[in-house]
Amino acid sequence: MPAGNLLLVNGRVRTMDPARPEVTAVAIRFGRVVAVGSDAEARASVPPGTPAIDLRGRTATPGLNDAHAHPMSVGFALLDLDLSPAKHAAIGDLAGLVKRAVAEKPAGSWVIGRGYDDARLAEGRHPTRADLDAVSPDHPVVLIRMCHHIGVANSAALALAGVSRETPDPDGGLFDRDEAGEPTGVLRETALGMVRSFVPAPTEDEMVAGLVAGGRDFLANGVTSAVEAGIREGTELRAYQRLAARGELPVRSYLMMMLDETLDGLIDLGIRTGFGDAWLRIGPAKLFADGSIGGQTARMRLPYEGSDDNVGLWMMPPEELKAKVRRAHAAGFQVGIHAIGDAAIDLVLDAYAEAQAAAPRPAVQPAPRHRIEHCSIVDDAILARIAELGVVPIPGTSFLYHFRDAYVRNLGEWRIGQAYGMRSFARFGIPAAASSDAPVVPTSAVAGLQTMVTRHDQQGRPVNPAEAVGLEDALRAYTVNGAYASFEEGVKGTLAPGMLGDVAVFETDLFAVEPAELHTVRVDYTVTEGRVAYERAGSA
Predict the structure, then answer these.
(1) 65-99 CB burial, b ≥16 within 10 A, e <16
(2) What is the pLDDT of residues 246-286, one digit of tens each?
(3) pLDDT for res 81
């Protein structure tokens, strides 16, 4: 769709531009900001009759950037069973949901659910194959934990995947087993991937539909740019390209390319990070260093609580990871590595330092701005190295809001004090970029803002409030820092003349809201390139 002209007046506009941080109005012409300032200044910068939104004192900000999410999967998740703890308190509730789904599907068709949290189920454990077999003996079933690193399969699904007592654990994964050595159905990391690989792959048309549905969900939350955290195959890329070619991508997309599956082809074509335009751009080469805290597979320096020897998993041998980083770095790629545990983050920083030493940048190109996706368990020594190397952390800013119980149970409060600690990142001058990792958690940016500002979970319990930051700094993590993480701070992330006309309008003055109530604030309008891409019913 063509770029538009738009006025936003009579508001509290937070531009995120230090030169003019708060104004009442923004003028957008041909999709770009042409003026920020008073209402009169903005009106004088566009032709008479330009469409206008009267903000009536509402807060407007640059369009929000979600620096790590899975927009296609967000769309798919809308079609799968919703297992979220807010709706289902016990394993019996999940089983009942599966039973109803089975009744509506022909025998042999798959049933997929997403979003349970064992730490918040009444039984305090994962479902098992026995729980699922009782309601689905003939349909293969996989239920996926909120973290997307763990799931549970029933016997029909395990049989399709050829998993039995004799099946060895795959590299980088585990089959939970009972006292007799039989798989319980609980699958961790690559073991989950083994079973999920037997679920029929979505078609390109279904991927396009997923992107549209997921993108609309982001727009409803004020998000105008999102990082797709894992393109593995050509069909996924073609789905993005189809929408981009038609001008129908809901949000600007920065694509993380799975290194093992895509790097060779990209190098052969001469493509590297940055290829594309303001709507669709190739981003980092992606790797996994470890797993998740909820699944006790994030790689830690010290064992998990209640364990003498479990320090989590490596997703590949450390020297193999380093070699892959060196190759992607030398080919001109930004690299983004999933690393949650402190030992995994140590390894990633070693890999980045060695890659830079072997092939220094910048020489004829920008500094690499390699990323650490999630970057959860840190201390001051880690933060000093991140700052020294110019690495960009991508914290899941609402993870503590949703997952505090699992974090405390598995690591203890003593180890999560600086987890997603925005104040500590700021102390070291590190531009940490906010993310949701949706559909692992909802696309809600205001939940991320609230967590950064309060350091409380959804029940109001604190997680080291000393790491809290002000709302202005939290918004900066969702705007300026997100743009920096994708080398786009020159075109978005602030509202200033020449920048993209992407704006989020909240239903009230955000700065007048009690911090503990920020998660309730809705978005009234989301604007991309001067066009209203989302309008909440009744917002006018």
Answers:
(1) bbbbbbbbbbbbbeebbbbbbeebeebeebbebbe
(2) 999 999 999 999 999 999 999 999 999 999 999 999 999 99
(3) 86
Cα dihedral 11, 17, 21, 27, rounded to 10, equals -30
Structure-block tokens of residue 204: 């390109």
Q: Angle CA(279)–CA(285)–CA(290) in degrees, nearest 5?
A: 125
Domain-embedded: residue 315: no
The set of residues, in sequence order, having a beta carbon less than 8 Å from that of 77 and lying 6+ positions away, is: 114, 115, 439
**Nearest partner of 340 among 402, 389, 388, 295, judged by Cα:** 295
**Single residue among 134, 165, 196 that ends a domain in this structure:** 196
Which domain-ending residue is among 169, 196, 223? 196
Reduced DSSP (H G I as helix, E B as strand, rest coil) percent helix, strand, coil of the chain, to 5: 35, 20, 45
pLDDT at 365 (0 to 100): 61
For the chain, percent of residues with pLDDT exceeding 70: 99
DSSP string, 253-301: EEEEEEHHHHHHHHHHHT--TT-B-SSEEEEEEEEE----TTTT-S--S
In a domain, 302, yes or no: no
Q: What is the 3-state secondary structure (H, E, C) of 147-207?
A: CCCEEEECHHHHHHCCCCCCCCCCCCEEEEECCCCCEEEEEEEHHHHHHHCCCCCCCHHHH
Domain enclosing residue 525, as ranges = 6-62+500-535
Q: What is the CATH number of the domain that holds 46?
A: 2.30.40.10
pLDDT of residue 362: 73
What's the distance, CA 449 to chain centroid? 14
Supply the pLDDT for residue 366.
Answer: 73
At residue 409 the predicted structure's pLDDT band, cuts being 50, 70 and 90, is very high
Does position 328 have pLDDT exceeding 80, yes or no?
Answer: yes
The CATH number of whichever domain residue 151 belongs to comes to 3.10.310.70
